[in-house]
Amino acid sequence: MSLLEPTPQEQAGATDRAMTRRSFLRSTAAFAGLSALAASLSPLRELGEFSSAEEFMQKYYKEMTPDDMAKVLKRIEGQVERQYGIRPHVRDLKPMDGVEFVYCLNLTRCIGCRKCVHACVAENNQSRNPEIQYIRVLKLPHGSMDMEKADHNYAPESVPEKGFFYMPVQCQQCHNPPCVKVCPVNATWQEKDGITVIDYDWCIGCRYCEAACPYFARRFNFTKPEIPAERLNPSMAYLGNRPRKQGVMEKCHFCIQRTRAGKYPACLEVCPVGARKFGNILDPESEVSYILREKRVFIQLKEEMGTNPRFFYYFDK
Amino acid sequence: MSTAARNYLTFLWRCSRIAFVGDWRYYSWMGVLSAIVLLGLNAYCKQFVHGLIVTGMSDEVSWGVYIANFTFLVGVAAAAVMMVIPVYIYDNEELHDLVIFGELLAVAAILMCLAFVTVDLGRPDRFWHLIPGLGQMNFPKSMLSWDVIVLNGYLLLNVHICGYLLYCRYNDRKPGKWFYIPFVFTAIIWAVSIHTVTAFLYVGLGGRPFWNASIVGPRFLASAFTAGPAIIILALQIIRSVTHYRITDKALLTLRSIVQVSMIINVFLLVCEVFKEFYSGTLHGASAKYLFFGLEGHHALVPWIWTAITFNLIAMVILSLPLSRSLKYLNIACVLSIVGIWIEKGMGLVIPGFIPTPLGAVVDYVPSLNETLVCLGIWAFGLLCYTVFLRMSVPILQGRLSKANEHLPEPDAEDDTDLPATAPAPH
Lengths: 317, 427
Prior knowledge:
The structure holds two protein chains of two kinds. By secondary structure, chain A is of the alpha+beta class. Chain A has helices at 8-41, 53-57, 66-84, 115-123, 178-182, 208-212, 256-259, 266-270, 287-294; strands at residues 89-91, 101-106, 136-141, 164-169, 188-190, 196-198, 219-220, 235-237, 249-250, 276-280, 298-299, 311-314. Chain A has a four-stranded mixed beta sheet. In chain A, strand 5 (188-190) and strand 6 (196-198) form a beta hairpin. Chain B is built from 16 helices and no strands. The radius of gyration of chain B is 22 Å and the shape is globular. Chain B is mainly alpha-helical. Classes of the chains: A alpha+beta, B mainly alpha. Chains A and B meet through helix 1, helix 5, helix 6 and strand 7 of A and helix 2 and helix 7 of B.
C-alpha cells in the first residue's frame, strides 16, 4: 500500500466530518424553516372565539330534531349574552299554514327618505361597522326604469327632489330564486310561506348566491359585525335577526321574527307615507290581494329573468 | 402482498427523500419558493382572523383575483390533455415520454385551484358541509357542486395515471394497459368537462349579462388550449436545460401547432364577443363597455384588457409566421399568450361581470396587498409542487431511481448535471 494514499480510517474520518457538517446544515435549515413557519402562522394568535366545537359539529337545520334545536337556541342565547351582556330571546319560528307573504310598494308615494333602511338595520341587528343594509333606495330620473341611471348615494338637503322618483330595492323573495339554486351546500332555501332564508350556521361563505342575485339583495359579512350593545334587538329568530358571524351571507327575510308572529315588517311600520303594503296573498281579503287585483299596473323587477318575485311595485294615478 | 406494500412504501420513501436533495440551484429555487409560500401563508392567516375585509372585494364586486386565478388555472389543468391526445389517439412518438410532465402540471394546477377556492371561502372551517353524506351537497342543481366533483375527480385521475406509470417505470415493469389506458381516455373527456363546468359556473347566472352568454364556454376552452400548452413548452425547455432529459425540438414544435391553432380560434371568438356586445348597442353591453373603455369615469380594467389584447394579437402573428419555428420567437409568443390569457380569463372575465351591479352602480375593484400576497403564495406553492414532482419523476424516467438500485447509495445532488442522461425506454 502506498503511503500517499489515505488509510481507510482517514477516509472514514473525512466522511464522518462531511456527514456532521451536512447534518449540521440540515438541522439548521430545518430549524430555520420551522421558525419561519411559526412566524408566518403568528396572526392566528388573535383569533379569539372563532367557532366552538358544538358550533362546528352542528347539524343541518332541516335535520335537527326539536331537542337539537332547543340546545342550539340555548347556545346562541349564551353566546349573545357573553358578547353583548344582554340575554336575548331566540326562537325558531316556523311558517304558518295557509300563508304566503307578498310585499307591494307604491312608487307614487315613496319619497326616498330612507327611514325604511334605518328601521331595518335597527330591527335586524345589522352590522354598523362595516355598515350592512338590506334595502337600497335608488333615485331615478323621471320616466326611466333603467337602473344604470340610478343614483345610490343621493344626499340632498331634503327629499323628494323634483324630476326624480325613488325605488327601494330589497330581497324580492322570488318564486324561482337563482340564489337558492346555486348554493353548493343548501344553506339557503325557500320556505313554504315564500320567504327565502339563510342558515347562518351552515353557510360556507362562497358568495355564489351574491353573484347569482339579479337584485343585489345579498350581503356578506366581510369581517366580524359590530353592533353597539345598547342597540341590540333582543327579540330574535334563528333564521332571522340573530347576530351573524364573520364570513357568512345575510339578506332581507321579511322580518321573520315579526311577520311569523303576526306583526308587520319594520320597514313598513316606519314608512311615513304609507308606500309599503305587506300581507298574505292567499287571503283574498288582504290588502296585498286587493292591490294586485285592483291596480291596473304593477311590476315585478326584471321580470324577464324569470325569477317571479313576491315583491311588486305599483303606482297611483 | 406485504412485499408489494413494502416495495410501494420504499418507493414513496425514496421519492420523498429525493425531493430534499439537489444542487445549489435546486436549494436556492426551493428556498425562494418556500419563503414566498410562507409570506402567502402569513397573509392568509391575517385574512382568516380578520375576514375577507383585508381583500379588495366588496358586496358589489364579490369575487376577485382568487376566483380569477382559479379560472385561469382550471384552463391550465385542462390543457394537459392537449399532450395526451396526440400521444394516445394519434400515436405521436415525440411526445410520448413527455405526457407525464403535462399531467404532473395538471396535478399542480388543480392543487392551486383548490387552494384558490379555499382562500376565497368566508368559512373554510365549514368545508365539510360540501362532503356528500357528511354535509349537504346541492347536486345536481348547483354548478359549484359539479365543479367540486369534476376538479377532485380530475385530480384523482391524473394522480393515478402519473403515479401508476412512474411506479411501473421504477419497477422496470411494463404498465398493464387496463390499469391506465381507460383512465387516460376518461381523463381526456374529463379535462374538457372541468373547463366547461367552470365556464357554466358563470354562464348559468341570468342576472349577469356579461357572463350569461353561450360563447363563454367555447372561449374558455380555446384560451385554455392556448395558455396550457404554452406553459408546457416553456416548462419542457427548462426541464431539458436543468436535467438533460431528452426532449426533442420536434416535440416542442408539435405543441407549437396546438398553441397556434388555439390562439387563432381564441382571437376569433373574442371578435365574435366584442361584435355582439357593441354593435347591438343594448344596455346589456355596459360591462363590456366598462372593460374596454371605462364607464362613468371608472377605468380600472381598461389598461389591463388592452395589454391582454395586444399581447394576444402579437402572439397570434408570431405563431402564425414560420418565424416561430425558432425557439426564441416561440418562447416570446408563449410568454405573451400566457400573460395575455391570464389577464383576459382572470381579471378580464371575472371582474367586469360584477360591474355595473345589477342595480346599476359602478364600483371599482383593486386587489389589496394582502390579497396579492396570498395569490403569490399559492403560485409559489404550485411551482413548489411541480418542481418536487419533476424532481421525483425525472430520475425515475431516466432509470436512475429504480428498484434495481434500491440498495445503492441515493443519487446525490451533482448527479443531475454530471451524469449523462440515459435515453428513456419507451413504455
